Amino acid sequence: MRTPDLESLRLLVLVADLGSLGRAAERLRISQPSASRRLSTLERGLGLVLVDRTRRGSRLTLSGQVVAGHARRVLDELDELLAGAGRLRDRREAELRVAASLTIAEYLLPVWISELRARRPELYIGLQVTNSEHVPELVESGEADLGFIEGPRLSRVMSTRRVAEDRLVVVVDPGHPWARRREPLSARELSRTPLVLRESGSGTRQTLDRALYLAGCERVRPLVELGSTAAVRGAVIAGTGPSVLSELAVRGDIAEGRLIGVDVAGVDLTRDLRAVWPTGRRLVGPAAELVAVARRAVAGRRPAGE
């Protein structure tokens, strides 16, 4: 017994409804001989006689009536499946749920979202802000369609795409002894100095730990651990101690003299900012558009010739 094709089931149901093979064929816009061949194929596949063909026309046998009833339910379920898929597709096109690390959410995403909303004013965008370690969990669980992270390490296997580059900067308040240094700090000096730090699991902390490890140094000991970039920045301005923060977060403070940037030798503090989504899932719709907006925004900021 072969699985019948849907168009043959649709033809059988129309024969039941219209009482005529000819009218059923006309409704499906096929020839009557073609419709007859299709019903014959269906009968052979099921091993049943479904239609009595007489000079006065065609009518369903008892078996044909039973099969037509089953076919009607199959087609109704198919219609419901297609309608449900359409609703899901419309929802996907009208809604975008994003999870992002704090630095990206605070300093980059507002501009990216604004540009995307200008193109799609009907689009609802929901944003969850957490540290880089937890972003992949939200994306993989389906709580977010797309994530943005700033750390060098992913907590699970995911598809990723680089959207920007960031640089970490060692900063102190103007009264700190490092503010008057003329020589860059060494990697070892930095690693041996307690710092005001973001919490473990943040992208900033991961980047710093990895950079010091690659420079042959041990991890920094925290002087204070705080849960947001703004809190760390405020503590450094208040004179609590030095820190390492995203250039995005402290650029204005350095320009206005609230913080002093300190050069470090022998440590690469650059990092990639990446979009992440589940492996095996194609990036489409608003999620793909937001990634494209992010990449264009960064490309537009590059100096000519880069």
Explain how this protein is built.
The chain is an alpha/beta fold. The chain has three domains: about 80 residues, Winged helix-like DNA-binding domain superfamily/Winged helix DNA-binding domain (Arc Repressor Mutant, subunit A); about 100 residues, Periplasmic binding protein-like II (D-Maltodextrin-Binding Protein, domain 2); about 110 residues, 3-Layer(aba) Sandwich (D-Maltodextrin-Binding Protein, domain 2), CATH 3.40.190.290. It is about 45% helix and about 20% strand. The protein has twelve helices and 13 strands. The strands form four sheets. Strands 3, 4, 5, 6, 10, 11 and 13 form a seven-stranded mixed β-sheet that branches. Helix 1 crosses helix 2, helix 1 crosses helix 3 and helix 6 crosses helix 12. The radius of gyration is 32 Å and the shape is rod-shaped. The relative contact order is 0.13. The C terminus is likely disordered. This is LysR family transcriptional regulator. GO terms for molecular function: DNA-binding transcription factor activity; transcription cis-regulatory region binding.
Question: What key phrases describe this protein's structure?
Answer:
single chain, 306 residues, alpha/beta, Arc Repressor Mutant, subunit A, D-Maltodextrin-Binding Protein, domain 2, 3 domains, 7-stranded mixed β-sheet, two-stranded antiparallel ribbon, 12 helices, rod-shaped, disordered C terminus, transcription cis-regulatory region binding, LysR_subst-bd
